[in-house]
Amino acid sequence: MTQQLDEATLRAQLAEHYQHLEAIGLNELSSGNVSCRLGDNMLISPSGATGSNITPEHVVEVTLDGEWSGERKPSSEWRMHAAIYKATKAQAVVHTHSDHCVALACQGRGLPGFHYLVGSFGGSDVPCVPYSTFGTEQLAEDAAAALDRRSACLLGAHGMICRGRDLANAVSLAHRLEIMCRQYLLACQLGEPYLLTKDEWREFFDRVKQVSYGSFI
């Protein structure tokens, strides 16, 4: 678990996962940000970070009230990360501007339960919160509220954010959500996709409990 890792290891992992997100196309240029808990504080990617310039030393330690020190400023979205840590047991948070998540978010649409793997985010859908200006307290509050019972949500006219039990899990969830949004948009090209019923979702979650399947936190 992240709490058992020292700061140097977490810094190295965070930089590595940030680079991986860019390598698989979930973020481009300096979009998106990654964080993890560090005791009562968090480590977060710096403002202006890209896969090619981020290093473990550039990662910024920030309190959940926004206090930091050093040469690098924390990501402008630190409030959103901090609000999620305050509201949940998340150990890591990933925010991306991945293409298919953005496409849905710019329609103000959540991801409906068209496929059973939507349930891997904790419910029968992935909600989309209303648009708010980046870096604001309103966006932070809306995202944290949406992630109370979900591990991911879409951000209206913006992108997505997810929480995980560690950095690898959070990055995997971000990747999974991009895949699911892409597949949903493909399915929509053939018509309105079938949505699982309440009974089918009930059976799915019963099965999940039996086999410890999925990414629930």
Report the CATH topology name.
Answer: L-fuculose-1-phosphate Aldolase
**End-to-end gap:** 13 Å
- What sort of overall outline do the alpha carbons produce when their principal axes are compared? globular
Poorly predicted tracts of residues: none
Mean pLDDT: 95
CATH C-level: Alpha Beta
CATH architectural grouping: 3-Layer(aba) Sandwich
Radius of gyration: 17 Å
The largest sheet, given as strand count, sense and whether it forms a barrel, is: 7 strands, mixed
Helix content: 25-40%
Give the strand order of the largest sheet, numbering strands 1, 2, ... along the chain: 3-2-1-4-7-6-5
Number of domains: 1
State which percent range the strand residues make up. Answer: 5-15%
Structural class by SSE content: alpha+beta
Q: Helix-strand pattern, N to C?
A: HEEEHEHEHEEHH
